Amino acid sequence: MKTRPAGLGTINADWMGSLPSKLSALPLKQLAVPGSHDSFTFWVDVRAPVGPDQKVYVKYLATMFSMVAKKVMVKWSMTQNLTFKEQLDAGIRYFDLRVSSKPGEPGTEIYFIHGLFGHKVRDGLKEINSFLEGHRKEVVFLDFNHYYSMGTEHHVYLIRMLQDVFGNKLCKNCMVESITLDYMWEKKNQVIVFYHHPSGCGNPALWPGHKIPAPWANTTEPNKLIQFLQSTLKKREKQGSFHVSQAILTPRVNTVAKGLLWGLRNYLVERSVAADLCVLEHKCDFSEVNTMPL
C-alpha cells in the first residue's frame, strides 16, 4: 500500500469556523463540503469473517482460500488510508457510513464494514467527538446509509450510542434551508446524523435518508462519471434536501479479476488521475455534499 500523501496536517481543521460571515449565514446546503466514501475503511480485519454485504460466491472463495482470498479482498475493501482524525484535520466533514453486526457474535456490537469488518462504530464515533470537542465551530454530516445483519435490538443500540456519544451536539431534524453555520453555532450543534432506516423515524435527533440523496454512477469509466455528475447536479432538489455528488469509480467483478493483485488505488485511481480526473483519488476519495455547481 502506498503511504499517505505528503503535507497532510491540520491546516484545514478549522475551515468552517474560519469562513466569512457572508458564508456562515448561508444555508449549509449551499456550501460545497468535502466528504469521503466508505469513510471508515482505512483498516479492515483479515481475521474476521467476510462481511454479510458480500455475495455468496465471495464468501465461498474466502472459505476455500482463507487468508489468501482475504488479502486480495483487503486491496479492494480499503477505500481510505486516513483515519477519522486525519480526515477531519484535512477538512473532510461528510462521512459515508456502512455498518453491520458480526453474525454469530453474541451481543449487539456494531462494526463498520466494506467486504471485511472494520473498527467498532463506537470507537469511530468517539474519535469524531474528540475532534469536535477541540474544534467547536466545525460541523460534520454522518450518513448511515447501509445496514447488514441488524435487527431491532441492533438499531436501538446504535441510536442510543449516537445519543450517548454526541449528546447536545446533535442537530434536530428540521427544515433544511434553516440550517446555517450561524444556526449551528448558536445552538452549539455540530453533528447532523442521517439514518436511512425506519428505526430512526420519530427520533428528533435523526434526519431521514431522503433529505440527503446520493445518486451513484456505478461505472469504471471517468467520462461516464463526469456526465453523470453533471446531469445529477442539474436535477438535484431545489428545496428540502442536501445533495451528495459521489465522484468515485466503482469496480465490478471483471475489474477485480483483471486487477487481482493491484487493488483500487493502482487499478482504478491511477487510471483516473491519468484521465485528468484527480478528484477520484479512491484511497482518499472524496464525495461532495451540499454541492453548488462544480
TrEMBL record:
SUPFAM superfamilies hit by this protein = PLC-like phosphodiesterases (SSF51695)
Q: What's one GO MF term for it?
A: phosphoric diester hydrolase activity
Q: Which Pfam families match?
A: PI-PLC-X
* Occurrences of domain Phosphatidylinositol-specific phospholipase C X (ranges): 22-196
Name the PROSITE patterns on file: PIPLC_X_DOMAIN
Q: State the InterPro entries in the record.
A: PI-PLC_domain, PLC-like_Pdiesterase_TIM-brl, PLCXD1/2/3, PLipase_C_PInositol-sp_X_dom
User: What is one GO biological process annotated to this record?
Assistant: lipid metabolic process
Q: Which PANTHER family match?
A: PI-PLC X DOMAIN-CONTAINING PROTEIN 2, PTHR13593
- The protein's name is Phosphatidylinositol specific phospholipase C X domain containing 2
Name its species. Cynoglossus semilaevis (Tongue sole)
